[in-house]
Amino acid sequence: MNKKHLLAISGILLIGILLFTAYNSHNLHSEHMHTASSRQEAINSHNEAVSLRSETTVGESGDDIRVITSGMGIHATFECVIEVATDVVVAEFVARRPFGQGATEYEFIVHDHIYGSAADTIFVYVVYNEMSRSFAAPEFQFTTDTEYLLALIKLVNIYASFHYDGFMFIEDLILDLNNPSRSTMHNEPLTIHSYLDFNSIGLAREHVISYVRSLPRNPFATINRVFITSDNLADIINGSPYVLVIEIDEPRRLSSQGLQSDIQATDIYYVTVVEVLKGNMRVGDELRVVFFADTVNSGETHIVSITPTSPNSTNPFFYDFTSRHSLHCLDQRDEIMAIIRGPGRSSTSSSATPTPTPSPTPVAGPSRFSASPYDPDAVADIVLINIDIDLSEDFVSAMIEIDELNAMFLLEEMHSITVAADEIRTIISVYVGDLDLSDIQLLMFRGFAIDPDTGDYTIIPGRFSADRNYFYFELAGSGIIGAFVYELPTPLLRLTINQYRYYYRGAPQTSDAAPFITGNRTMVPIRLVSEALGATPRWDRSSRTAYIYYNDTVLRLPVGEPLPDEMGTPILRNNRVLVPLRFVIENFDAFTFWDRELREVTVYVLG
């Protein structure tokens, strides 16, 4: 049995301790090069002591360099810690905060990357319980305005709720670069756990960093396997070896029955394969799948994207989710199948029109526009006729860029739609598969409708099919329809995840709280986004509720309570209220654009 599904993060932290055992059987530090003679002597002493490591105990004293022997019989030194760390950084302590009931989250700003690819703002997690001796002492503290050298191991756990760039400390190491002699390991002076004398007079920040760079490297990989961090359905489906329709049978173990923590809680169910959408699996196969706690129940049918816990096993004991969004609704089946088939592959079922929208009814003659009743049971005769019309100048305004694409839509692709029953809701389908629209154009694409009697027009947002070949929007009644692409406005805000520096109308600014991603929602300080949009934030301490006032509109955001439409939950962190960005901006005439590679979100305001 793979215990990483039965143990909480406290058990995972033990891996960081146990991994040192693998390094005690060979010479970890055979040769170190450094120009300073005092450090060279320390290295030479270290080389001589390595062969005696297994015989050296905590009980030694005097001037001899001591090597730690824990109660578990594990030997570790500062040099071992540096060798196995996935990331070694110079960082400034920002804050510590509770993380659930039994854990603590430490936040740092990284000033220098010695090893690894950590973000500029990182979060390090500690769990306190009987299974983890790490940082159990109450006097463990970091102080602000102090630079520390952090030796870390990256955490990669699909079922844990920490940041994607989460880390754990190794061996209680606190290396104070402002004053190295104050550094500790296991709450004892660091000098007794290292071959470098951290009490030596004149030992400075640059000496420590130089010594660290001279040490050999054999980093631990990560804790647990890498998973898909994207929330894009196509990324998840394409990156998953198995996509199955499954029926939930009886639980193998519920979170309430097993070891868990506030960081990780999972349920394990026996499931039966009902349909194989992707992968080499058979209908009727019985599997054991690890779910997030309290997300499914026996007797339900779902679609899941999963992978074997042990990829090389011929008979995997467990199957994990491939992402934090690998539990899909049955209504998404057609969309998922369109992704699996890929562009240009035919299908017996319609995957172009989102449920419950029916397939568009083609009209006579070549046209990229078609229409169908919104309600499949509604009876209505829909006629779509290509027309010529002169657009009013206020419609072709400064915010619409009349380029070649818009000229085609606004001048050549105008249609009159009539229905037998007035005010019936109709789905308009626009074929765009031949246009090679950019990501920005897809984001800025809109439908519109014009009242032929008054000339008034309505801009209508919509959505694209999974293959990006069709754009859909709704129209009530008859009218003149078309499509266009908004001219990209000047960015209002540009925010980078885990960065305090941001841009407001192109000018650099600094926030007192960095945006971050949780539950696939970008969380931002409420004051930053409110004031950028010209609104006023207010905080009611007694009800723990934040408000945003804008003209006659009031947004209510109670801390800790989920927002409508699964938009996320406002939180209070380090005395700052952070809210889901999308929820706020969708209540304004604004939208966002996400750059996955740069981890950057840009807010645009139309009009």
What does this structure look like?
- There is one protein chain.
- With 607 residues, the protein is α+β, with helices and mostly antiparallel strands.
- It contains ten helices and 37 strands.
- Strands 11, 12, 13, 14, 15 and 16 form a six-stranded antiparallel β-sheet that branches. A five-stranded mixed β-barrel has the order 3-4-5-7-6. A five-stranded antiparallel β-sheet has the order 18-19-25-21-22.
- The N terminus is likely disordered.
Summary, kept brief:
This protein has 607 residues and is α+β, with helices and mostly antiparallel strands.
Identify the notable features of this structure and list them briefly.
single chain; 607 residues; alpha+beta; six-stranded antiparallel beta sheet; 14% helix; globular; disordered N terminus
Mean pLDDT over all positions: 75
- What is the CA-CA span between the terminal residues? 59 Å
What portion of residues belong to β-strands? 25-35%
* Radius of gyration, in angstroms, nearest whole number: 30 Å
Fraction in helix: 10-25%
**Tertiary shape:** globular
Largest sheet: 6 strands, antiparallel
**Low-pLDDT residue intervals, each spanning 5 or more residues:** 1-75, 129-139, 344-365
What is the number of strand segments? 37
Figure out the total of helices: 10
Derived from helix and strand composition plus strand pairing, the structural class reads alpha+beta
Note the topology.
Layout: H1 9-18, H2 37-50, E1 68-69, E2 75-76, H3 78-84, E3 87-99, E4 103-115, E5 121-127, E6 147-154, E7 166-169, E8 175-176, E9 184-185, E10 188-189, H4 205-214, H5 233-238, E11 242-253, E12 266-278, E13 286-292, E14 301-308, E15 319-321, E16 327-328, H6 333-341, E17 369-373, E18 382-386, H7 404-412, E19 415-419, E20 425-431, H8 439-444, E21 445-450, E22 457-460, E23 463-464, E24 470-476, E25 479-485, E26 491-496, E27 501-504, E28 507-510, E29 516-518, E30 521-525, H9 526-532, E31 536-540, E32 545-550, E33 553-558, E34 571-573, E35 576-580, H10 581-585, E36 590-595, E37 600-605
Parallel strand pairs: 5-7
Antiparallel strand pairs: 1-2, 3-4, 3-6, 4-5, 6-7, 6-8, 9-10, 11-12, 11-14, 12-13, 14-15, 14-16, 17-20, 18-19, 19-25, 20-24, 21-22, 21-25, 23-24, 26-27, 26-37, 27-28, 29-30, 30-35, 31-32, 32-33, 34-35, 36-37
